[in-house]
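User: Last request for today: this protein with adenosine monophosphate, please.
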Amino acid sequence: MTSSPFPLKPGATIGILGGGQLGRMLALAAARLGFDVAILTPEADAPASRVAAHTVLAPYNDPAALKDLAQRCAVVTFEFENVPAEVVAALHGLGVPTAPSDLALATAQDRAIEKTFFRDQGIATVDFVAIDSADDIIAGLARLGAPALLKTRREGYDGKGQSWVSTPDEAHDAFDRLGRVPMILEARAPFVRELSIIAARAHDGTVAAYPLTENTHKGGVLHLSVAPAQAMASTHAAASALARTTLERLGYVGVAGIELFELETGDLLVNEFAPRVHNSGHWTLDACEVDQFEQHIRAIAGWPLGPTEPFAKARMENLLGAEVDDWATLAAEPGARLWLYGKRETVAGRKMGHVTRLGPLG
Ligand code: AMP
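Assistant: Here's the final one, the structure of the complex with adenosine monophosphate:
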């Protein structure tokens, strides 16, 4: 019998699939705990590569690259949910532990499977129907009411791969516009606010959740997160309970983000589940003893989870596109905590960095 490699000792190498800003902040957290990081990314000069000990530059499904990564690493995780779930399964097959599992990733990658999973756990989501043709959209509108939101089942994020449909005559155009791929049609959620909860599950089954975050989007992209969100005690309790159920039922290890719609009654509907650290949890970097990135590294390394209670109220704003050009002003602003992602090219709407400002709790 081989003994468990967990808890990983400082000096071990942690593999991350994906080279974006989430990988960069995970790599910084890992380095702080004495780990080395190896990134697998198809992108040369990626933001995460520039703070990691090693990069394997290759497509995610390159067999030689996966073998190389498996040999270097004591555990492999991912920062990007469109990594094929088979890649995570293949790494596991090569004998390297992976966390979260390919099951969690596959569940989150398909909106129909994801919503069905939540319903099976008794967790409310918006009503939806699976769509394989324009005629399905017409039937779906009759069932769900108009307007309804058409979303591709796979690879949608930040409002991409979505289109509102108000009348049956728009069905054909909308189906064509989103690429005639498998989709779902969702009833319009009558939400008063968008919230999210970031939670972690450790190897030993311990679950720890950060308090609810209130999120505002601009053009489908997260703009502002405020935490802890002001909400009824019953809403906080419901969010923690659904996060716990989700992570337990998936046998999850690591940090996950769950996006929620709050109804006027305070009841919650799950919008979606991200099997990774989440943009709406960036405020934890500056307002918590152990932030979501360190928490994820702790979880996948088999370390104990850290505390999740904030010591300040936080207001995190994303710097999208040219907003990052204000870096010098932000750097000079007392109390503004600036995080820049080192992206080489500023593109409109692209997440280039974020800034967090703290205030008193209460
Ligand atoms: P998503 O890509 O599913 O996170 O959706 C992006 C944004 O679209 C959400 O943050 C909401 O603002 C909005 N949205 C998504 N689904 C619905 C829905 N069923 N009803 C109303 N708004 C929605």
